[in-house]
Inverse folding.
């Protein structure tokens, strides 16, 4: 049976990003073209080489978890003529003490030619992780943008 492990998965919790850890410039503004609800998680301007904006959440995995199925929607945004940086969605697998078991598994990375031209267009994805490594108890889901 599939359950949603993320809390506030669509960023609809008032005007906050409750339950989400974040760094870089991130906000949760109202948006009439939100994918669902009325809010979006916005990873802010990332323009300098090496800058990163990230939003993540650590979840406890139910016993018997074998793989993780992730679905999400992303919209490229234009803020004052600056487009959001390339983004990616990753999982970090953690053991019971919170130490990494597998440092990172990239589920999706935006590639050239995947930009949307209409601000109302959302790119939607469904991804399946690799097998859960032995000894894993937690997973950290992260979406990030970085200029390299």
């Amino acid at each position: 049976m599939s359950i949603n492990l993320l809390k506030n998965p669509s960023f609809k919790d008032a005007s906050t990003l409750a339950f989400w850890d974040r760094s870089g410039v991130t906000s949760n503004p109202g948006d009439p073209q939100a994918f669902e609800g009325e809010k979006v998680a916005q990873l802010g301007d990332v323009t300098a080489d090496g800058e990163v904006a990230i939003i993540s959440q650590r979840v406890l995995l139910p016993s018997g978890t074998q793989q993780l199925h992730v679905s999400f929607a992303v919209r490229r945004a234009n803020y004052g003529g600056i487009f959001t940086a390339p983004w990616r969605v990753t999982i970090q697998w953690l053991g019971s003490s919170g130490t990494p078991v597998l440092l990172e598994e990239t589920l999706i990375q935006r590639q050239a030619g995947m930009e949307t031209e209409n601000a109302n267009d959302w790119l939607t994805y469904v991804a399946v992780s690799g097998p859960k490594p032995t000894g894993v108890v937690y997973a950290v889901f992260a979406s990030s943008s970085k200029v390299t």
Remarks:
- The chain has a mean pLDDT of 79.
- Residues 72 and 133 are 23 Å apart (CA to CA).
